[in-house]
Amino acid sequence: MDQSMNISMQQSIQQKASIAQQMDELIQQNELLLKENDYLDSFVIRFKDEEENVPDDVPNTLLNPGNKLAIALLESVALEHEKEQMSKQYLDDTIRQKAMIIASEQRLATLRRLMFQFQREVLQDQQISNTFAENEGGVQQIIHKMPKQVTASSLLQFYEKQTTNLQVVAEQSAKSQKNLQDQIQVARKQSDKNNRQAGLSQIDFEQLKIENDKLQDKVATRNQEMLRIKLSAGNCMRLLNEYKNDLHKICENKKKYDQEVNQKQTLIKQLEERIVVTRKDLDVDNKVLQVLRQKEIFAHDGPQSVDYLSLKVTQTTLEKAVKEMERKIAIKEREINNLKNK
């Protein structure tokens, strides 16, 4: 009964899954048909508009060689102009791409540094700098040894440490920028004061101008560094949030897998108990069958015809019951092996 109920439940589940899959396929086919219908409608409308816009009487005019030459010259001039524009655009694109490559390399370096710190501090891979492996191209790569478990406290400490480091760097760059601006203002005031004096020479003025240019260059570089640090901080925050979400998903999946394992273990225990009970019943039936066979052998006078037939009937029924029990035991053992393999 239990086996038939399990089989019927499995069949119903499979039927429901197949029906749901068929429904999804029909919905997708319906959506594709609707899209094709929309495309056909738009094509028909566009074709009708083109037919309506075509004039009835189109004059057949031929160009003379002079007109053809003028058209060719105009086209050549236009092509030269387009060529110049394309060359300028190509130069601009190459410069922009080089700048993007440099910026991406800087970001990649920061990300590698952060990944190195993450492997060493969070994943507790202390031998990360000493373990290398060569791939097919002969390039050495670091082998990362994944730990068995990662604590949330270490991840939060790493996250807080990186945020504090980024904040400190941003504050230092802001302070240095402010100091440079103060120095520029002081230099400007000093230059104005010196300009008011009568004894200011042209050499001192040029010197102050050079220093001012240097300070402005420093301010520009510090501004670029501050912008780069802000961008890298935003990217690091985004990556850390993604890692946090992945960690939560992994924990949820672990809980689900633990529940499934517990369910399968309980099912295996139940099946083993049923197998033990059926084996006991089989032993009892075998003993009864042996007793009946011994009675049949040791009967000297011979049984009556009715007793003989009844004994034969019981013998056949017991043999059928034994075969049925053996078949059930084999089925249960196969189910246990399948569950263990899963």
UniProtKB/TrEMBL annotation:
GO cellular component: axoneme; ciliary basal body
InterPro entries found in the cross-reference section: CC_CF (IPR051885), CCDC113/CCDC96_CC (IPR025254)
Pfam families cross-referenced by the UniProt entry: CCDC113_CCDC96_CC
Keywords per UniProt: Cell projection, Cilium biogenesis/degradation, Coiled coil
Domain of life: Eukaryota
Domain CCDC113/CCDC96 coiled-coil, chain residue ranges per copy: 185-337
Gene Ontology biological process terms, A to Z: cilium assembly
Coiled coil ranges: 9-36, 170-281, 315-342
Subcellular location: Cell projection, Cilium
Entry similarity comment: Belongs to the CFAP263 family.
Protein name: Cilia- and flagella-associated protein 263
Source organism of the structure: Hexamita inflata
Lineage: Eukaryota, Metamonada, Diplomonadida, Hexamitidae, Hexamitinae
